[in-house]
Amino acid sequence: MSPHDTARPLEVACPQCRKKVLWREENAYRPFCSKRCRLLDLGAWADESHRIAGEPAMDETDLDALLARADRDGDAS
Q: Which keywords, in A-to-Z order, does the entry hold (predicted)?
């Protein structure tokens, strides 16, 4: 027997409801416990309830203003 045969599968908490879930290939929704929890998490990302910390991204108008300012500064030299 290989060590994987006797090893107990990893048990994780569902990120949405905190229910214990066995990390197995048979669980198509891992690390979530169900399709419902997976969709609730996806919805939270879609409505921006979940965010990755960091600097806000520049939008197109900010980028255009930055480029125009750089052009003006370059012409003054």
A: Metal-binding, Zinc
